[in-house]
Amino acid sequence: DSGVTQTPKHLITATGQRVTLRCSPRSGDLSVYWYQQSLDQGLQFLIQYYNGEERAKGNILERFSAQQFPDLHSELNLSSLELGDSALYFCASSPYLRGDDTEAFFGQGTRLTVV
Amino acid sequence: QQPVQSPQAVILREGEDAVINCSSSKALYSVHWYRQKHGEAPVFLMILLKGGEQKGHEKISASFNEKKQQSSLYLTASQLSYSGTYFCGTPRLHNNAGNMLTFGGGTRLMVKP
User: Are the Cβ atoms of A100 and B99 closer than 8 angstroms?
Assistant: First the structure.
């Protein structure tokens, strides 16, 4: 158990809908990262939040947004969903802003299926 | 830009060795290695830092050539539990001081009895 909790584990929704994925980082971790993993593909970095502020952004679609709350949990909002958005969405956390010499701890992921 | 991993897939018998390579077109401060079982979360293996420092939890060896911007993961005397997809990650500092840990496409390793 990494200590990172993601909910829900599975989500099935229709095209055009909006969903919210939730992540609770490990106790004490201030950085939260979101990744998208499409079927049998690599991990695509979406966005990083640190202590409530957006700090790094990858190739995240404009239809996607995220935020980190004062209690440090984070939510990833996906709107106007398309079939191609079906993927595993992972959240990871680490203690520091940079984290280039620190391991990240991954949650179990949310499997999103858009039908 | 994401790092490039090779090979894309490896099939081994128990006890055999394998090497997984990771290269980057950009200068590296560190290289991170993770292993992912199918449908599960990636699990940290090790970090290799400039200057030779390594941080890791498992008895896996790796190298980091800063000049060549390459890293290699050495899996010796492989066990069935080594099966999974291995990802290397290279951190890239963002303008806003954040950190994009960008992963390669992965190397699928299957160890057979």
Answer: yes
Per the omega criterion (within 30 degrees of 0), is the bond before A70 cis? no
**Which has the closest alpha carbon to B107: B83, B79, B81?**
B83
Alpha carbon separation from A100 to A94, B3, B68, B92 (Å, rounded): 10, 15, 19, 8
User: C-alpha angle B104/B91/B20, rounded to 5°?
Assistant: 35
3-class DSSP string for chain B: CCCEEECCEEEEECCCCEEEEEECCCCCCEEEEEEECCCCCCEEEEEEECCCCEEECCCCEEEEECCCCEEEEEECCCCHHHCEEEEEEEEEECCCCCEEEEECCCEEEEEEC
pLDDT per residue over B35-78, tens digit each?
Answer: 999 889 999 999 998 877 787 766 688 999 888 889 999 999 99
pLDDT at B49: 87
Spatial separation of the C-alpha atoms in residues B102 and A47, rounded to whole Å: 11
* Closest chain B C-alpha to A103 CA, distance in angstroms: 7
Q: Which residues of A4-37 are buried (b: 16+ CB within 10 A; e: fewer)?
A: bebeeeebebeeeeebebebbbbeebbbbbbbbb
d(CA A97, nearest CA chain B) in Å: 6
Contact yes or no for B29 and A100 at CB 8 A: yes
Termini Cα distance of chain B:
37
State the first-to-last Cα distance of chain A, in angstroms, to the nearest integer: 31
